[in-house]
Design brief:
The chain is of the alpha+beta class. It has one helix at residues 9-22, and strands at residues 39-41, 50-53, 64-66. The radius of gyration is 13 Å and the shape is globular. Bound molecules: iron/sulfur cluster.
Length: 80
């Protein structure tokens, strides 16, 4: 039976690099996903930088998103 993939530092770096390459982004914004009320940090070792977008009107709904990304559907998380 196959086991879960390794998530040591080298593996995490490779995953991060690949996800960055696969997710579109333009310029830097101050209103970043990390501060958005629709950003759900993922569990596990990738969760320090990546979350899932749960905004039904956002282009990234149901996708992983980098904490420093942004979209026009951003809404500030007052509880941050
Ligand atoms: S992609 Fe947009 S709506 Fe989704 S978490 Fe990031 S800023 Fe919020």
């Amino acid at each position: 039976m196959a086991q879960r993939i390794d998530t040591d530092a080298a593996a995490r770096s490779a995953i991060h690099k690949r996800w960055i390459e696969k997710t579109p982004r333009s310029e830097w914004h101050e209103d970043q996903c990390l501060f958005c009320r629709f950003y759900l940090p993922i569990e596990g070792p990738m969760g320090s930088d990546w979350g899932a977008c749960a905004n039904p009107v956002a282009p990234r709904d149901a996708q992983v998103t980098f904490e420093h990304d942004h979209c026009d559907a951003f809404e500030f998380n007052e509880g941050y």
